[in-house]
Automatic annotation (TrEMBL):
Residue ranges of coiled coil: none
Organism classification: Bacteria, Bacillati, Bacillota, Bacilli, Bacillales
SMART domains reported in the protein's UniProt record: Lactamase_B
Metallo-beta-lactamase domain mapped to chain residues: 12-192
Protein name: Metallo-beta-lactamase domain-containing protein
Keyword GTP-binding applies: no
Length: 209
């Protein structure tokens, strides 16, 4: 498997595309610029199979409906944020983009609890990492040696906790007990900014040392 990173929209939230040998792919957090994302997928000749959301803030979901419609695929979200897709006051669009509030279609698949999942032939561990938002999750792909951490953990930083449902203490606990316990060489694919590793963040992240 291999992955691609596409920063999208004014928030430059990272959308990731994870590709297997058959050129099938999972799409993580399609936040904006659906045509840019579709063009990339077309150029790479990929076949999208599903959309996985790390959480439901506006900068991670803005292109979700376009992508589902284009490829006839389904979305996955944690149960604690299932309502956020349809509620602008929860997903943040009422606050940040009041002239274009996001009221999306509900997710087809609601995830609950930590578990090993298989989605369209892709196997991974679902890890609950709340704090940035109540339903924030991370997706750990052991075979790839990478974790898609959303806005929980960044390179030398952590997610903000001043939005509705945010909890700083909970976020620190999530990172230390759920993410930093992964193998040191695990690549951290964050919701914003460059990738990093568990080893680097364990040693050098000023919020965690």
């Amino acid at each position: 498997m291999k992955w691609f990173q596409l920063p999208l929209g004014s928030f430059q939230a990272n959308c990731y595309i994870l590709v297997n040998r058959q050129k099938e792919c999972l799409i993580f957090d399609p936040g904006d610029e659906s045509q840019k994302l579709i063009q990339f997928i077309t150029e790479k000749e990929l076949t999208p199979k599903a959309v996985l959301l790390t959480h439901a803030h506006l900068d991670h979901i803005g292109a979700l409906d376009d992508i589902r419609k284009e490829y006839k695929i389904q979305a996955y979200i944690h149960e604690k944020e299932a309502d956020w897709l349809i509620d602008p006051s929860l997903n943040g669009s009422k606050l940040f983009t009041p002239n274009s509030p996001l009221k999306l279609n509900p997710a087809e698949n609601i995830m609950k609890g930590e578990q090993t999942l298989s989605v369209k032939g892709f196997d991974f561990e679902l890890i609950e990492t709340p704090g940035h938002s109540p339903g924030s999750v991370s997706y750990y792909f052991k075979e790839l040696g990478a974790v898609f951490s959303g806005d929980a953990l960044f390179s030398r930083s952590i997610g903000r906790t001043d939005l509705p449902g945010g909890n700083h203490k909970q976020l620190i606990q999530s990172i230390k007990t759920k993410l930093l316990t992964l193998p040191n060489n695990t690549i951290v694919l964050s919701g914003h900014g460059p990738s990093t590793t568990i080893r680097e963040e364990s040693r050098e992240n000023p919020f965690l040392v």
